[in-house]
Amino acid sequence: MVNRERLANKIIKLRIKKGYSQRRLAIAAGVSNSTISRIENASSDADPETLKKLTYCLDISYEELMDASGYISTNNLAGVKRVEKEINVKVNIDNLDESIVKAKRYVELLKEAKTLAEELASVKFDVNIGK
Fold first, then answer.
1. Which Gene3D superfamilies does this UniProt record tie to the protein (predicted)?
2. Distance (Å, rounded) from C-alpha 85 to C-alpha 77?
3. What global pTM score does this model have?
């Protein structure tokens, strides 16, 4: 659920901290002055794309603005990041499994090479040159 009041307070606080007027923030973010005014007056929802543009101007993470707006909560964000981390670990484990298979194959090849070398060393050659 979108939380207009919370987002409005966050944007106003950050804008004032940066010393920006609504107009200056609008120009910097590439949105209309009326868009900034509507967001700060909590009279309309800010779409995620607008929030993304504001992050660059207000030195705030996209996740923080999405949380302030109510699009996502920090609880959901933590869950998303945890799942993302688990996916990355799974990918690394899958790659590790592949590496283990390759390492085992390499060890098998080394054992075969050792066996062949030992067999070759045990063979006695009778070399008669010039007879």
1. lambda repressor-like DNA-binding domains
2. 12
3. 0.56
